[in-house]
């Protein structure tokens, strides 16, 4: 819980700076890759989004929290610090820029949630549901992932095409 976590202003400022800087680099790289070719970006370069997951996880770990709400509680405690306020504003602005970028990828490929959701949304998935492992490119089933005795973080990215 964030109330139990003691984080210094310097630690928070450093963690926010690192997160903002990594987000900027990842966004800039993604924008450049997408500008070269949207058709190649989605199947070959979309894995850049995994960098966002790692950056966010490292940010939470550096603050000793597990949820965004806990991180927000910490940065609210230091809201009087201009640097913290500026970095939080930068982070929120970057979130908007990422949203805009991903929406532009959707519109550039002429796909929308409405177009892609032609079927009924599933309440559950069968263990026989086939997926492609994003790291190896192998075809796997959901049951194979869930049967490994681990607690994997599954990131499901819809297929454009």
TrEMBL record:
It comes from the Eukaryota. It comes from Eleginops maclovinus (Patagonian blennie). This is Selenoprotein L.
